[in-house]
Amino acid sequence: MEFVKVDVKDAVATITIDRPKALNALNTQVLKDIAAAFDSLDLDEVRCVILTGSGDRSFVAGADIGEMVEMDSAAGKELGRVGNKVMRDIENFPIPVIAAINGFALGGGNELAMSCDVRLASDNAIFGQPEVGLGITPGFGGTQRLARVIGNLSKAKELLYTGRNIKADQALELGLVSAVYPQEELIPAAEKMASIIAANAPVAVRNTKAAVNRGLQTDIDAAIEIEVELFGELFDTADQKEGMNAFLEKRKEKNFQNR
Ligand code: HXC
């Protein structure tokens, strides 16, 4: 992997997009490397992922404009398909992914962040979908996820049509991110959240993510049935017995086995 680093420590994998000269812009190779980084994770070992950018200026400053400038419509569609698959695979990745947004999250960068389960930002982070100013639409899911993530169609359309950027505090107000930290506290905060998630029963966390994601794509009655299935099947797991017995025995230490 040329542009992505993977570091696994204590059941938490940190995936760092590392193309600082271009503010971590997503060219074809970066997209391939991100996919390869997720594929490389051993889910018996890793229980939560942190996705971030290298340096203290940029998470991802968008798709690579130099690579896109001469594309025709066939190439544009292919790029949209490839990029959207990477985003969708992250959204559907079996374990939680926390975006630690350490600076610019523009265009494809904001779209990448929105594919993650939880977004935490540094106080210098800048968000936006500037595509219309470049003569394109958002192409890695932004026309679809922004409204879904912030739950405010008027604001989502305003941001998409104006292409204007917003700062971290405005992103927090909109619900685009969960919390904002000084730059040096961002990764420690993400690691703390990841370690809390990683200490819970992994199979229960996985089923919770699947229930939320799958349920949001269907009507409420079908969604409740999805929850019933994913809830019920956990009663055949060792970790459900362990979690409940630990409570009844007043034990703080739990020995979850991921099964
Ligand atoms: C290619 C990029 C880039 C990008 C930055 N760089 N963003 N290269 N694609 N998206 C490069 C610059 O060309 C420059 O390279 C270096 O990174 C540093 O950037 P500067 O512009 O010199 O830095 P600064 O003046 O601080 O401005 C930072 C910035 C600006 C505000 C983030 O770089 C910017 O506006 N970038 C483009 C943001 C954007 O429009 N993103 C959306 C892209 S479209 P050199 O070699 O000159 O030093 C998109 C669509 C997704 O994402 C869907 C597609 C299907």
Description:
The chain is built from eleven helices and ten strands. The mean pLDDT is 98. A hairpin with a 2-residue loop joins strand 1 (4-9) and strand 2 (12-17). It has a six-stranded mixed sheet, sandwiched between helices. The protein has a four-stranded mixed sheet with strand order 4-6-8-9. By secondary structure, the protein is an alpha/beta fold. It folds into two domains: 4-198, 2-enoyl-CoA Hydratase, Chain A, domain 1; 200-248, Orthogonal Bundle (Lyase 2-enoyl-coa Hydratase, Chain  A, domain 2). The two termini are 31 Å apart. It is 47% helix and 16% strand. The structure holds hexanoyl-coenzyme A. Hexanoyl-coenzyme A (HXC) is lined by residues 22-23, 25, 61-66, 79-80, 83, 104, 106-108, 130-131, 134, 138-140.
CATH level-two architecture of the largest domain: Alpha-Beta Complex
Spatial order of the strands forming the largest sheet: 1-2-3-5-7-10
The kinds of small molecule bound in this structure are: hexanoyl-coenzyme A
- Average residue-wise pLDDT: 98
The helix fraction, in percent, is 40-55%
List the helices and strands and how they pair.
Elements: E1 4-9, E2 12-17, H1 28-39, E3 48-53, E4 58-60, H2 65-68, H3 73-91, E5 97-101, E6 104-106, H4 108-114, E7 118-122, E8 126-128, H5 142-150, H6 153-162, E9 166-167, H7 168-174, E10 179-181, H8 183-199, H9 202-215, H10 220-232, H11 238-248
Parallel strand pairs: 2-3, 3-5, 4-6, 5-7, 6-8, 7-10
Antiparallel strand pairs: 1-2, 8-9
Helix pairs in contact: 1-3, 4-5, 5-6, 9-10
Hexanoyl-coenzyme A (HXC) binds near residues 65, 104 and 130.
